[in-house]
Design goal:
Alpha-Beta Plaits; single chain; 27% helix; Rossmann fold; alpha+beta; Elongation Factor Tu (Ef-tu), domain 3; 34% strand; 5 domains
Length: 596
């Protein structure tokens, strides 16, 4: 154990975390020259294209230092706020962390939140200033920010560049000297933390584990504490670029276990593994079931593809345990699924993966968050779909989830950022100047307000400089109403949404105007209305196409023309009674594009 070091990397998106990890793998010769490519640890095409880490990864590196052979276990973490629970479990598996800060951008919001997570777990922090090879690098200012944040000395900060390899040897040396060896009793009962899981179509679920106490051998019977299930350890081993089977893993080791599990729900991130015959006295702290934050309906474009979509979603869930789904039906869209996501990025990624990996064309409804509806009979109903909201005669009040959000931006953009947050029903809690021209703003605001376009607007008004991070702060009572959209008097359930009463009128008006642009004209008038309960608050009309039935009358008495027009009028009246309105696909996504 004294020659083992377990560490993770903390960084904001695009601060060079994956590139620096590539250089560490090259210097320790974990990867051969033939296998060298960018973002080695990012296995998905989506991760490469977007330059973000979606799934956390682990890899073991061997390095000789002063005559001793060290085992360095790197546990890579996602940087995005949507995957913060995965980050917390990865941090719980380590004794140290590399804090990587971009020398051109300075400290960002997600760096701070992940750093606080690391400090809560008493991790040894090694500060690294990356991208020092760029002309735009501003080392003096960024160094002051790091010193203010973690209270280190200037000599403790390593100057590095993931692109050129500068400072990588120094980083490895600092990991060996500063990060403590793992603590743990190899003779105690087995206690291992699951920090991630991967699905293999041939072997089943592969659980990635960090052994805290005791030891585990192949073919032993183990128990998963949270689920209470028992399995035989068919194979255990360590993770290099490929899986490396071993006969035994002991306290301090990071590796994997394969038990032939086929159902993703039986392996939960954060769970504890112990022996069946000699169980540990307590599970590792910090386990929680991952709760979806954002809900949306996903429907196949072609209703005949429903079963195919079900199969695709089930396969996708095997790789992504935080994604939940249940069947639902809509009058407008037919049969589909109500899906739960960790956030908007997660929703985007799931849609993209359904399209790429399974070739599924899908329509998604308006995303919304989970509300709590309290009825007059003192019942509490979890509402994920606006149509499940109890009627006004039963409803007492509604509570919606609130978040505490941190925005870090240049001080010149403070005014526009404040206006944006206050316009989204936010309340300013704190304003703290990190440096003379960088400010941290803390707001409390409803989660539902950031679901739509908050992040995009924040980036545009700050010209890309602002960074945003948030955590849940609980539920609060709110004056919410269900806004229904009616086409020719028929409610379209897929376009319903929950909105604050103060914003409902404006939102309904914009919805009607947008649908008027998108719905094609028919042979009859189409009334588009926005309604709260039975009260119509906005209306637009798509005018009928006029067919010139009198064109063949090129002379004669006016009564001939009038007779034809009267005949057409009767036909249109009948048509309107039986006419169905076709709503194009883009109308369902138009709600997201509305400038709310």
């Amino acid at each position: 154990m004294q020659y083992t070091r377990n560490f993770c990397i903390i960084a904001h998106i695009d601060h060079g975390k994956s590139t620096l990890a590539d250089r560490l793998l090259e210097v320790t010769r974990t990867i051969s020259d033939r296998d060298v490519r960018e973002q080695v640890l990012d296995s998905m095409d989506l991760e490469r294209e977007r330059g973000i880490t979606i799934k956390s990864h682990a890899i073991q590196m061997d390095y000789a230092y002063q005559g001793n052979q060290y085992k360095l276990n790197l546990i890579d973490t996602p940087g995005h706020v949507d995957f913060s629970y995965e980050v917390s479990r990865s941090i719980a598996s380590c004794e140290g962390a590399l804090l990587i800060v971009d020398a051109t951008q300075g400290i960002q919001a997600q760096t701070i939140s992940n750093l606080y997570l690391a400090l809560e777990h008493d991790l040894e922090i090694i500060p690294v200033m990356n991208k020092m090879d760029l002309e735009a690098a501003n080392p003096d200012e960024v160094m002051d920010q790091i010193i203010d944040l973690i209270g280190c000395d200037a000599d403790d900060i390593i100057m590095a560049s993931g692109k050129t390899g500068m400072g990588v040897d120094k980083i490895i040396e600092r990991i060996i000297l500063r990060i403590p060896a793992p603590a743990g009793d190899q003779d105690a009962p087995l206690q291992a933390l699951i920090f991630d899981s991967v699905f293999n179509p041939f072997r089943g679920i592969i659980a990635l584990i960090r052994v805290m106490n005791g030891r585990i051998r192949t073919d032993e019977w183990v128990k998963f504490v949270a689920t209470g299930k028992e399995y035989q350890a068919d194979e255990i081993g360590v993770l290099k670029l490929t899986q490396n089977p071993k006969d035994e893993l002991s306290a301090g080791d990071v590796g994997y276990i394969i038990s032939g599990i086929k159902v993703s729900r039986e392996v939960k991130v954060g769970d504890t593994i112990t022996h069946v015959d000699r169980p540990c006295s307590a599970a590792i702290e910090g386990f929680e079931n991952v709760k979806p934050m954002v809900f949306a309906g996903i429907y196949p474009i072609d209703p005949d593809d429903y079963e195919e979509l079900r199969t695709s979603i089930e396969k996708l869930q095997l790789n992504d345990a935080s994604f939940t789904f249940e069947p639902e039906s809509s009058v407008a869209l037919g049969f589909g699924f109500r899906c739960g996501f960790l956030g908007m990025l997660h929703l985007e990624i799931v849609q993209e993966r359904l399209s790429r990996e399974f070739d599924m064309g899908v329509i998604s409804t308006v995303p919304n968050v989970s509300y709590r509806a309290y009825t007059k009979n003192n019942e509490v109903i979890e509402v994920h779909n606006p149509f499940d909201m109890p009627g006004p005669n039963l409803l007492d009040h509604i509570e919606e989830p609130f978040i505490t959000g941190q925005v870090i931006t240049k001080s010149e953009y403070t005014g526009p950022v404040m206006n944006l947050c206050i316009g989204k029903r936010g309340v300013l809690k704190n304003q703290h100047y990190l440096t003379s021209d960088r400010v941290e703003l803390t707001f409390e605001m409803p989660l539902g307000e950031i679901v739509f376009d908050f992040y995009d607007k924040l980036k545009s008004i700050s010209r890309g400089y602002a960074s945003f991070d948030y955590y849940m702060s609980g539920y609060q009572p709110s004056n919410l109403v269900r806004l229904d959209i009616l086409l020719n008097g028929e409610s379209v359930d897929a376009l319903s949404s929950l909105s604050h009463r103060d914003n409902a009128y404006e939102f309904g008006k914009k919805m009607c105007a947008k649908l008027k642009e998108l719905i094609p004209r028919q042979q009859f008038d189409i009334a588009i209305q926005a309604a709260i309960s039975a009260k119509i608050i906005a209306r637009e009309t798509v005018k009928a196409l006029r067919k010139d039935v009198t064109s063949k009358c090129y002379g004669g008495d006016i009564t001939r023309k009038r007779k034809l027009l009267e005949k057409q009028k009767k036909g249109k009246k009948r048509m309107r009674q039986v006419g169905n309105v076709e709503v194009p696909q883009q109308a369902f996504m138009a709600v997201l594009k509305l400038d709310t």
